[in-house]
Amino acid sequence: MISTQELFRLIKGPIAVAEPLAPYTGLRIGGTADYFIKPRDRGDLCRAFGYFRERGLPFFVLGRGSRLLVHEQGFRGTVIATHLLDRIIIDGDLVEADAGASIRALADRVAKASLSGLEDFGTGAGTVGGAICRIDGTPGREACECLEWVDILRNGRVKRLKNGELHHSMAKRGLVADVILGAGFKLRKVSARHRHPASVHAPESGTVTSSALSARVFRDPDPNTGSERATAGELLDACGLRGEARGGAVFSDTDANRILNSGGASSGDVLDLVSHARETVHKRFGVELELSLVLVGYNRNGSHVPFT
């Protein structure tokens, strides 16, 4: 059982009770969480994580929620949000960013410092932590050659993964059970006239409209297995799924691997559309698409399986 008084003594950041989660997700779908915590810094996050983990209480860590799908009945547990963990430090060609730093802010800071190397980093993600979570280590797929290290919280301890250990973990998707705390990048200096303009990969938290796109729905199939080397979007597009709808949930007309809330979509609408797409792709190509959306609600704690 959670002691509210104990939480307020332990955590420096703000704590809310019965916080609506829909505003924190790209799809604007979902009920309330019992508790909603915004740690002030990494130490605060580690204390919050340890409190709930040691007591076996349900919780999950939230970034910008760009690929989060929350059930309308909400989440009976605690959300630990990284919104205040947004430090970005630039020292020459070295850049360090906390997990909660937005991709937009990072792109702006890097461009102003005449640095290059992050132009394709974090496409579709809201935060640095979210972008790192989707790097799968597959050559040519979401790679980030300038990534030097990632700081993680693993089994209650802070650990820095560098070089071979980092890439091996990503290739095995070994960061799934870890909490991303931040990352370091080694970039290239460019002259002001040759630098790339700052890219906007994702909307800031709190500015997503009611018809905002979610993050990609499915992971790309591993090109090293099977005969099909297309991306998930290409497979969906080949099946004619652009514009396909279930209730208020519809696949984007411009990107077949994104779902749009056209107004009043429910989590059930989204899952019905996802199920239809997976069946269609499997029937035509024999490929089992892996869900990228993270499902939260009822007893589902950041799980990739349907609500029960």
What would you note in describing this structure?
The chain has three domains: 4-81, Uridine Diphospho-n-acetylenolpyruvylglucosamine Reductase, domain 2; 88-189, 2-Layer Sandwich (Uridine Diphospho-n-acetylenolpyruvylglucosamine Reductase, domain 3), CATH 3.30.465; 218-290, Uridine Diphospho-n-acetylenolpyruvylglucosamine Reductase, domain 1, CATH 3.90.78. Helices cover 23% and strands 28% of the residues. It has helices spanning 4-10, 42-55, 103-112, 128-133, 163-171, 232-238, 267-285; strands at 15-20, 32-37, 59-62, 68-81, 88-91, 94-98, 115-116, 147-154, 157-162, 179-186, 188-189, 213-216, 245-246, 249-251, 258-261, 294-298, 300-303. Strands 1, 2, 3, 4, 16 and 17 form a six-stranded mixed β-sheet that branches. The longest helix is centred in the C-terminal third of the chain and has 19 residues, at 267-285. The model is unreliable at 137-142 and 198-211 (pLDDT under 50).
Specify the number of helices. 7
Give the overall shape, derived from the CA principal axes: globular
Return the structural class. Answer: alpha+beta
What is the string of helix and strand elements? HEEHEEEEHEHEEHEEEHEEEHEE
Please name the CATH architecture of the largest domain. Answer: 2-Layer Sandwich
Name of the CATH class of the largest domain = Alpha Beta
Biggest pleated-sheet summary: 6 strands, mixed
- Radius of gyration, in Å, reads 19 Å
What is the CATH topology descriptor of the largest domain? Answer: Uridine Diphospho-n-acetylenolpyruvylglucosamine Reductase, domain 3
Report the β-strand fraction as a percent range.
25-35%
Structural domain count? 3
Low-confidence stretches: 137-142, 198-211
Q: Gap between N and C termini, in Å? A: 23 Å
Query: What integer is the average pLDDT?
Result: 84
Helical content stands at 10-25%
In total, the number of strands is: 17
